[in-house]
Target: Ferredoxin
Amino acid sequence: MNEQDIPTHPDWSHIPEHARHVMLCTGPRCTLRGALKVWKTVRNELLAADRIETKNGVLLTRTHCQFPCNLGPIATVYPDRCWYRIASHEDARRFAREHLVSGQPVKDLLLERGTQ
Model:
């Protein structure tokens, strides 16, 4: 495939508006621990709150391994520099509603540096 054969769209030439960038690991270990279900739940919560790629919203990105894999599924939030373990549907809903919509980190889901 040549570069001219790659599909394009005008929206793919700019960084979407957002206040927070969430990177959710969908690497092999986090996926086995339910990361795709977490991603769908977080995305649905953000869509319902009109917070996907808006000025005060979230740019939600799926990544591969971010470590610490044994504690996954892992999500990181920037510019807040928060690392989360989101292990259930309810955790995903709380994460989206409390931190991403209301701006309050969910303390009992946060991972601290050095967590094992």
User: Anything to note?
Assistant: The domain at 25-107 is CATH 3.40.30.10 (Glutaredoxin). The longest strand covers residues 20-25. The chain has a mean pLDDT of 95.
